[in-house]
Amino acid sequence: QQQQQQQQQQQGPAPPTARIFQGPGRHCDPAWAQGNYIVSEHAEAHADCVSSVAIAGQVAVTTGYDGSVKVWSLCSNGGPPSLVKPLTGHSGRVEAVCADAASQRAVTSGRDSSLKVWALGTAPQTAASSHLLHSHYVYESVPCLAVDWNASPPVAALGATSGNISLFELDTGRKLGVLKRHDAEVSAVLWMAHPEAQPASATEGAQNSGSKGAAAGLLVSGSQDGGLMVWDVRQPRSAVLAGRLQGVRKRVCSLAASAHLLYVGDYSSSIKIYDMRKLAGPSHMVSPVARLPAAPSADAFGDVCPVAGMIVDPKAKIMLNSGIAWWSDEQWEALVEASEDEPLPTAVLNVHAVEGQVDEYLNTVRLGSGIATCAALQESYALVGCSTGSLFSVAVCKREMKGNAGMGARLCTGLLVGCEELE
Predict the structure, then answer these.
(1) Could you give the 3-state DSSP secondary structure of residue 398?
(2) Where is the composition biased (Low complexity) (predicted)?
């Protein structure tokens, strides 16, 4: 008890849970608020865990623990994505991918200590022409990366197992600098706008999505031991630590941003929100300004798991986050608790309307067996990678799509199971 009290005193008072919207989805894209979806599964998309996914135009790129990189054509009627071609070149587990539709490039990294840049056809008719442009040996195993596509030239941040973050000029492979402060493996990195130079629109430069705007001024890095740091990278060759964030539990699993707000998914049942305007130097610890519940309710057999798939779309004012529940597969439409010998939970996607620190839970989308490990979103279409190697697509079902769902897809309504923080 004394240790718990000391820990609470060090961390300060718990941040408030976010407030709730008054109307049902009135602040978000109404298509998401209606809660009608087309869900499909591409089983065995990878032979092992799907580690990362990115969407660029009409194609997607996935990476896996099986050592493969794959290009997919997205289905316009909500069906599962179609495999176009594998991209060969990595010799070990591939863990991260970023893609940009405007420059038609994808970038991958993994355990083979290489940074690979690919020419990416972003339309179904050009996707098959995707190929390797150049490869750079970076001397460290790289489990995560992020690219500032708006920088000129683009800059890649590589989080390494050593705890270092290396900055590389993407076009030349020239190393710009190394950031050294983490004591454990870097598990997530994200570029975002500096609060002193906010973009004209909150949708610019916030999600490593390739949207054109000002170059990012901040780099956020999280590690396996819960370390969370913010770097001022307005001058990449002389980047400095701008602040430290506290309140994260165990591993930092996912990062997202909207304007000056940072959303952090960790190994708990809540998403932490930080205000980058509160940064006050490397010796100052910044606490969350709010928490958003991230687990399906206990009454619906929800459970705690890493929030590995989290996306915030500032334009649609939507947040998606992964979760798990222990549901039986025998009755798909009914929520029946799984038997005690069930080896795998059910992966779910929680849908929230978000505006700043304010959150409204909308519904929960049932995916399939396993744990969601990564996710990508483009307008009303999401792709979710799973620990089992499956790739799920979730498309908002619009009126013209209801009678034309793709082969293997199912029409479903978001489940109202609630979202809460669990012990």
Answers:
(1) coil
(2) 1-11
Count other C-beta atoms under 10 Å from residue 292's C-beta: 26
User: Within a 10 A sphere around the Cβ of 341, how many other Cβ atoms?
Assistant: 5
Give the distance from CA 290 to its chain's centroid. Answer: 19
- Name the strands in the sheet holding 372-378, side by side, starting at the edge strand that comes first in the sequence: 372-378, 381-386, 391-396, 36-42, 409-413
What CATH code is assigned to 26-420? 2.130.10.10
Say if residues 207 and 259 touch (Cβ distance below 8 Å).
Answer: no
Q: 373 Cβ partners below 8 Å, 6+ apart? A: 49, 50, 51, 308, 309, 322, 385, 386, 387
- Tell the burial category of 390 from Cβ atoms under 10 Å away from its Cβ (0-12, 13-18, 19+): buried
Place of tokens 């307008």: 379
Max intra-chain CA distance, the chain: 64
CA distance 27 to 31: 12
- Rounded Cα distance between 29 and 8, Å, is 38
DSSP, collapsed to helix, strand or coil, labels residue 10 as: helix
Domain residue ranges in the chain:
26-420
Over residues 227-265, the pLDDT tens digits come to: 999 999 988 888 889 999 999 988 999 999 998 999 999
pLDDT, tens digit, 9 for 90 and up, residues 103-157: 999 999 999 999 999 999 988 889 999 999 999 999 999 999 999 999 989 999 9
